[in-house]
Amino acid sequence: MANSPSGDSVLDRIVRVLSAFDPQHPDLTLSSLAARADLPTSTAYRLVDDMIGHDLLHRDPDGRIRVGVGMWELANRASDTMSMGRIARPHMLAVNAQIGQHVQLAIMRESDVLFLERVSAPQAGPNIAHVGGRLPTHASAAGLILLAQQPEHVRESYLRRDLARMTSSTITDPVVLRGVLDEARRTGFARLPGHMVASSTSCAVPIAGPTGEVVAALGAVVDTETAPPDQRIHEALAAGARAIRLALRRAQAAEAED
Amino acid sequence: MANSPSGDSVLDRIVRVLSAFDPQHPDLTLSSLAARADLPTSTAYRLVDDMIGHDLLHRDPDGRIRVGVGMWELANRASDTMSMGRIARPHMLAVNAQIGQHVQLAIMRESDVLFLERVSAPQAGPNIAHVGGRLPTHASAAGLILLAQQPEHVRESYLRRDLARMTSSTITDPVVLRGVLDEARRTGFARLPGHMVASSTSCAVPIAGPTGEVVAALGAVVDTETAPPDQRIHEALAAGARAIRLALRRAQAAEAED
């Protein structure tokens, strides 16, 4: 576990330490952190201390470790992604006011769908998408919309994977999924009833960036029993996606002016 | 510039590289990044490459470097701070609907005030507070509210600093500032007309956490000429702060249940 001269392994370890936290583990004891990061406790102890010194980690009064505010400050310098969520949010609120429950913004990351922003109605039903969390692409309407826009070799490589079954409705047959992807690309709308959570329907549309390429998906998760008609969900999401596209274009123009 | 055996200096460098970005510099060439991070270009080149490999940085097609989505993902594991902004947001929207312009959530970081969240009316006036940005504590109403709650030695140590003048109205006299802080602590309300931006008034109230201590400040920045009466701003902010306190308490109870 020596540090390599190039420092690569220190960076690896830092990333492993930070990756040990997740929504189910927002704080960890040092020993559980060391185990989850696959580090000897003594190495973890030293690294965690250094990271606390830079406020990348924080030690609670009871000794448990959390990700620090310093991480949040540094990441906020990632204007692109952070600001896409912030720019989209008012328009997501408008969509939420029309169709209720959950409205969310997602991008593709490696082969997962990553949720950047979420706006939920107070009495919204179950939804396992967390902001900053990833889900399997093929079980999420936002994921399918994004996958549908990928080059054919990326789509085909995804379809060759072992596709996880989230509920009894999740499509795991690549042939069926290929048809769903074609349909999503043709109509610009994906709808998956019960594929991620049995009682919910997930819908999504693509969001084009300032130059026309798809940069994100705008999705809704609604209770299948009480959901508005598909047509209304599609229209509300499409109007939201257009508004977000305009807002992104304005923000880019403003940044260029600065 | 050799790596120390403990790896400290690699961590230092990573933090310096990430700190080189700010709202005025969301992307940098490698050479400007190296200069701002105070690293030899060859060292910066290697470290930046490694960081790109972990997606902590991203290289645009034109070669400019940005903070990567991976940083955002890792920082989002900082459930505390990230989620405070998210939990507060709907209540900030409600305050914004009542008094217009900008409503913002801030905490103290070292001796600065750090803005965690901001909700702005579409036609809002000037406001130099960015989400993830810091401002001098004494020129911001949110900063003063937070400073007023600090132990006396922290307040006095702040007042001994060289206090930056942002506008001709900024109070830089520690004696006057001490009076303003006492008043803010007594009334739970701070109001600074033109101290940060000449035409704007900044107001703020404290937000108590689940256990009663002040965890953040809720502020408003309004156009001085068209601002609602102080009493109305104070009431709207105080109601917002109470709602945020309740929401934080509910979120903490929900986390404890998980």
UniProtKB/TrEMBL annotation, chains A, B:
GO molecular-function terms, A-Z: DNA binding; DNA-binding transcription factor activity
Source taxon at top rank: Bacteria
Residue ranges annotated for the IclR-ED domain, each copy included: 70-258
Alphabetical list of InterPro entries matching this protein: GAF-like_dom_sf, HTH_MetabolicPath_Reg, Tscrpt_reg_IclR_C, Tscrpt_reg_IclR_N, WH-like_DNA-bd_sf, WH_DNA-bd_sf
GO BP: negative regulation of DNA-templated transcription
Keywords attached to this entry: DNA-binding, Transcription, Transcription regulation
Domain named HTH iclR-type: residues: 8-69
PANTHER family the record matches: HELIX-TURN-HELIX TRANSCRIPTIONAL REGULATOR, ICLR FAMILY, HTH-TYPE TRANSCRIPTIONAL REPRESSOR ALLR
Protein name in the entry: Transcriptional regulator, IclR family
